[in-house]
Amino acid sequence: MNNFTYFFKRKYRQIKNVIRWIPVIWNNFDFDYRYALEAFKFQLNNIATHMESDKAVTMTAAQRAQKIRTITKLMDKVYDEDYALEYFDEIERLYGPREMNWEDDDTREGYSTYQEFIYEREYTQEQLKAISKHESRLHKESQAKQEKAHKLLWKLMEHNIRGFWD
Question: Quick check: 145 and 94 in contact, CB under 8 A?
């Protein structure tokens, strides 16, 4: 009788699991690694949710769930390129709001090419050159920070992933 009950409980959990994954699979494509990362992050969050529940059996499940949550937050920051793009905010804070000036590209229909930034404040050509140099330096710093965060993410993953079980 126990095997009979187990069979139906197992099928119920499997169907529930398939339904839970439908949005992830539906929005998945094979041409970009980001979709694989989203599926991986979804599964890590499922593991963390289980470890935070009363169904967890190991004594350190809550701590490991917290590590998973930290890693998935870092995944969001890294793959949304938060660090790589933070220099934009710094430039705007220092020099004021700006907009990109785009012009239609006559060589390719439906495409535009970037021409220049137009600042809300007035700047001389010399000041714009100085701003551009400063932006270039900040951009390099942001890119270095982004790369460091990417490496940290995968070092954390490598160090902790074998403990992501209950």
Answer: no
